[in-house]
Amino acid sequence: MNTGSDRGTNESATGDTTTGTTAQSGAETGAETGAQTAEETQHVSKAPAFIKARKSLHLSWQVGVFIVGLAVIAAGVAMLVLPGPGWVAIFAGLAIWATEFAWAHLVLRWTKRKVTEAAQRALDPKVRRRNIILTTAGLVIAGALIGFYLWKYGLVLPWDLKDQ
């Protein structure tokens, strides 16, 4: 099973190993280089060399990385509704996956780009002004509701109300 994490270890997509002394035709080498995109050639497994040397050990390593990343992402999803840094954990799990899997590396790169674009849009003066106005209006409405509650019932908690 080729997950794209073994690029750069002198192994082609078909699983054949090649050495620097093997004679290849120029057309074959050119076609293989042209088929690989920049993302594929940049991503290399972060597993130690002795693990990458044995296919079964490398597969076990990838399964372990997948399980650890999945656990971190699951904890992040739980922290979205529970107290804790949910999004940070989700991105950390994705970064763990990106150490071994090319698809996760691409997803992480896309996510970073989208977060950066959203941050740039949020810093736009028009958007900031709108957000400040909406926040102020929300706080005024919340203050008015709290003020009305205190005027009507005083400092009595809602579950301590008697029929009034």
Explain this structure.
The chain has 164 residues and is mainly α. It contains 7 helices and no strands. α4 runs antiparallel to α5. The radius of gyration is 27 Å and the shape is elongated. Mean pLDDT is 76; it is low at 9-40.
Tell me the span between the first and last alpha carbons.
71 Å
- Number of DSSP E strands: 0
Overall pLDDT level: 76
Whole-angstrom Rg: 27 Å
Percent of sequence in beta strands = under 5%
Largest sheet: none
**Number of helices, counting only DSSP H or I runs of 4 residues or more:** 7
Overall helicity: 55-70%
The class by helix and strand makeup works out as: mainly alpha
* Outline type: elongated
Element order, helices and strands? HHHHHHH
Oligomer: single chain
Q: Return residue spans where pLDDT drops below 50 for at least 5 consecutive residues.
A: 9-40
Give descriptors for this structure.
0% strand, mainly alpha, elongated
Task: Outline the secondary-structure elements.
Layout (H helix, E strand, L loop, with lengths): L25 H10 L2 H5 L6 H4 L2 H27 L4 H13 L3 H21 L2 H29 L11
Helix pairs in contact: 4-5, 5-6
